[in-house]
Amino acid sequence: MSVERHYDREFVRTFFTSPTAVEGEDDSAKMIQSAAQLRGLKAPDVWVPDNEDATAPSMRDEGVENIISVVAEHGAEFPGEIHPRMVWHRERPTTRYQGFQHMLQIANPDNGAVEHIDGFVIPEVGDIDDWKKADEFFTIVENEYGLEEGSLSMSVIVESGEAELALGDLRAEMGKPSNNLERLFLLVDGEVDYSKDMRGMTPTGELPSWPELRHNTSRGASAAGLIAVDGPFDDIRDIEGYRERMIDNRAKGMIGIWSLTPSQVVEANTEPLPPQTGSWLLTAGDTDIELEQTNGKHIYDGDSVSLSVEDDDTHHLVVGSDEHTLDRDELRSELLKMTAYVPSMDDIVDSMEEFEAAKEAGKGAIAMTQSATLVIDGVEIDIETDRMWDEATYQAAMTPIALFQDVYEHRTDQHDELEDRYGADVVNRATQVGN
Amino acid sequence: MSVERHYDREFVRTFFTSPTAVEGEDDSAKMIQSAAQLRGLKAPDVWVPDNEDATAPSMRDEGVENIISVVAEHGAEFPGEIHPRMVWHRERPTTRYQGFQHMLQIANPDNGAVEHIDGFVIPEVGDIDDWKKADEFFTIVENEYGLEEGSLSMSVIVESGEAELALGDLRAEMGKPSNNLERLFLLVDGEVDYSKDMRGMTPTGELPSWPELRHNTSRGASAAGLIAVDGPFDDIRDIEGYRERMIDNRAKGMIGIWSLTPSQVVEANTEPLPPQTGSWLLTAGDTDIELEQTNGKHIYDGDSVSLSVEDDDTHHLVVGSDEHTLDRDELRSELLKMTAYVPSMDDIVDSMEEFEAAKEAGKGAIAMTQSATLVIDGVEIDIETDRMWDEATYQAAMTPIALFQDVYEHRTDQHDELEDRYGADVVNRATQVGN
Amino acid sequence: MSVERHYDREFVRTFFTSPTAVEGEDDSAKMIQSAAQLRGLKAPDVWVPDNEDATAPSMRDEGVENIISVVAEHGAEFPGEIHPRMVWHRERPTTRYQGFQHMLQIANPDNGAVEHIDGFVIPEVGDIDDWKKADEFFTIVENEYGLEEGSLSMSVIVESGEAELALGDLRAEMGKPSNNLERLFLLVDGEVDYSKDMRGMTPTGELPSWPELRHNTSRGASAAGLIAVDGPFDDIRDIEGYRERMIDNRAKGMIGIWSLTPSQVVEANTEPLPPQTGSWLLTAGDTDIELEQTNGKHIYDGDSVSLSVEDDDTHHLVVGSDEHTLDRDELRSELLKMTAYVPSMDDIVDSMEEFEAAKEAGKGAIAMTQSATLVIDGVEIDIETDRMWDEATYQAAMTPIALFQDVYEHRTDQHDELEDRYGADVVNRATQVGN
């Protein structure tokens, strides 16, 4: 039996939290009122009215009432899923009981919210037995109100060493008849509290990057048919840093990320989708520089690499403080090593279609050629590179396309923005390829 | 139930090993004689008379006698804990039996040492069943001499793939009634033998850095309420390398490290505590340079970054071989990206106190501002950065303070040195904050 | 009981796959015909006629016949082990049944191939219960034909999150009486399909490097007495990249690697063995440059480091854009930090012999000195460094020597090439040392 995903969305790009009750405002529900009305790229795939850390302890009962009234009013129209975060703590039974009572209240059909609630987020879980305690409360809530068992999905925040270890047990535990852990949906890393639990410290007080935690979360999601989401990126003004974190996450198979603001939601909804235009990267020292494209040529205008020509046999290429004297072929070969191509959505769809045609014609592998004219210090050089595509390459290319198709299917409110980005033709072909 | 730590110290900075019997000396106990008399920053948190690898096999029976006589004489006065390392091997029953006999001898109350012995260190453990064999010998020793069961703590050296895997089982196994694994204390990585067991090789013969092992050890400690300690750093002259390793370890939540010499003990006792003065780091290329502070200004005098001014709208900033032309605001924003502040103990205590006052006044989050005047090539620029502090930031800042408080409580012999370092006022406030 | 390896070879450097049946060729067995006749450094330690991904689905029945005829003809003479790869998939029972039928056919003694078959490779395994299904088919095949139970070894391709998790269970599962998992041999990472299963993505479409997977595979091998092998390196023209990957793998204890071509086999058979001559590395910025040796001096002729002398107290050393003014001793000390020595096979054998002699004379640790004359911009500087050798250093140095001895014992077809490389004297001493 394959790993089945017991939920609608195959991918989640964005996990956006909003405080449920803010003190000192005319309307304490202000933040979730406005969040509930986000649409398009500003609206997250999963919206989390946050009745835990984002909301002061004294405001949490009021937060529950706010969730109910806002979701009852706006839930039907909200384009993403809705998963309020409850209070919970592996070491505090009274907190767990409070979370249970809040769930009972929100899920009461008389309150008119539960039909728009997709599930709840449980923070601060411990080992697998603690996850089962939360699951049991979901089951009781469902039975109390005649909801189908397992219909409320459960997402957890992994923010302790114990919970990280539990990620290895999910696949075996989820099948047991004494629980309903098949309701699991998102595995979300919570690096702030995880750092505290692990006693991690850095000189500047920044959070450690915890690569192994993110790997283990992604692997746990893969093995149990769930979805992995990275934790919050605190410096909301550092867009570049947020993007780099997402690139690093995707190389670990973790495609979703927490968002703290609608601007972060836009970034995180957009970034994992292939770019509208392809681009060449030039690696100089440690950094990859994206070359600027003008009239079909790719231009480097930084200072880390310089190039001058004496004659066809004598090119001087200076990279940092290293100087190479090269003939034209050696120059090409050196530049090929220093460059890489980032394919656009159009490029990926093209290559996949080409491979599908070749496969139909009985070929198992074909070469895809990528060529470009680079311009460095005014010197033009044509480069060309082949990549072999076989079934495995094709399948790997399918990951961003599958993501796109999932977004296109579930987020009709983003269709206009996607067509603005890619053009109607590319969007159309991208929804067809690979099926 | 929370993860409880079954021992006195919440933190261990230093794990210092000394050979128990050296051949060819007048007094074969010379090394442990002098180690037992270390005080203050030169004395480790955990002292390990090492009857395994540091002592020749032929000298190990004599080593046991030396441990007994030295600990009986100096143990009462020694300011840290005392945990002799016994012989043990997951693949050699005779070695295990020898280790058991040595423990019986050292723990015999007639010999006058055991009242100063806090536990034993067991090297070369295998999977969890092997740890249980060692634990059973501890239990027998305790019962033989009427000591309380569990009173001798057990620390292990993780130096095999099997032992690394066992780190994931500890939390579940420690609760079982058929063992006394609650006696566990330190999880210490032993990278030399681990490299052999894993067949790790590097071109120069240096040890691999094994980041995943250190993560797994730290996580195992977190999940089971134990303390993680990194292995020996062989190049005892490379102080800078030792410090860098400790910074890397702390970002993994591994605060303790092995020390081979009293100089390393001083480094490792000092390094994890916050610095006495704050400093600004400037990142140029790959390296962080600590700026020199003179008259309240922070001065960069390296060659990797240069700065010149034409007028307020035209600053030339050269970083490596990249040149930027910037106006004053762009320059500030560029420098903010390149700099980071390392807070002092005083800074941390200040911020925590400020947050505690804000919380009492009903605020959940406040901005802490950090400003400085940088000087690069004689050009002065004022920069200023805000950081939002909420409950989670506060809790994370608590880790180094909790370490300090633990040191202050358990190491009265270091009080003078700590007051010399920080001043009596900061020490006093640091012991109060957060409680 | 120690971890016993249930197979002949202690090390496997190379895992070379060949398509079993190619469409459109006169002889569809052409590729395995030529692979079966490779000898010396071009012949892999483990040869894998690949009836899975390298062979089109429609050709796989013919592939089985080709395996049988080629192995029956050439198997007796082939210098490495032979492990055909069968079809298998954790989520597809019909694929598993097809793999079983192919194994029954190949192992039928009437077909004359099985006496030269060492085992089978099973791809796309899932969790440990899926491994047991494959193992059960091996057992049935063995019993059907009167082969000894466990005589056919089983290697797996780890290419899913579930299989990665299973690596932690092997040691406990292999001892159970209800399976024959002691037949396990190689744990091979398959990063292409693993990336798909984990949903890993990179901007350029390159594979993520998956460091944690490789660690976990290597650790699983260490804990269960098996051998870890890294997956294919697709860019077969990038020899430098292939070598760098192997260096990174060895630092993780993963000594074997997949090879796609005989040229990659030569590289992967050679690279893990110590070099024939030692060399000095100079670290400048991020890169280690191997110094060129001429007349016993080690010459740096790059542009990243420059050196000039005013007088004995004034040397200008420029590294990147940092300039140091140093006296002769400071210069030596600075250069020592920037250099490292890569020992040759001869150096390693020398040091081990020297340590063995010292140990016999009752010494536990001795200093090994390494000295050299460096030449930078025409300036000569003598440097000298000591390294302490103790039993642990000696044991760690044994890893490459044990590899060499294993190769020498099992690959007599490579003796000539090894003597050409190292000289007969070094080869002879290297086969003796450490025993």
From TrEMBL, chains A, B, C:
<dbReference type="InterPro" id="IPR059088">
    <property type="entry name" value="MSH_C"/>
</dbReference>
<dbReference type="GO" id="GO:0006107">
    <property type="term" value="P:oxaloacetate metabolic process"/>
</dbReference>
<keyword id="KW-0460">Magnesium</keyword>
<dbReference type="GO" id="GO:0000287">
    <property type="term" value="F:magnesium ion binding"/>
</dbReference>
<keyword id="KW-0808">Transferase</keyword>
<keyword id="KW-0479">Metal-binding</keyword>
<dbReference type="Pfam" id="PF25918">
    <property type="entry name" value="MSH_C"/>
</dbReference>
<dbReference type="InterPro" id="IPR053484">
    <property type="entry name" value="MS"/>
</dbReference>
<dbReference type="InterPro" id="IPR015813">
    <property type="entry name" value="Pyrv/PenolPyrv_kinase-like_dom"/>
</dbReference>
<dbReference type="InterPro" id="IPR040442">
    <property type="entry name" value="Pyrv_kinase-like_dom_sf"/>
</dbReference>
<feature type="domain" description="Malate synthase H C-terminal">
    <location>
        <begin position="280"/>
        <end position="395"/>
    </location>
</feature>
<dbReference type="GO" id="GO:0004474">
    <property type="term" value="F:malate synthase activity"/>
</dbReference>
<protein>
    <submittedName>
        <fullName>Malate synthase</fullName>
        <ecNumber>2.3.3.9</ecNumber>
    </submittedName>
</protein>
<keyword id="KW-0012">Acyltransferase</keyword>
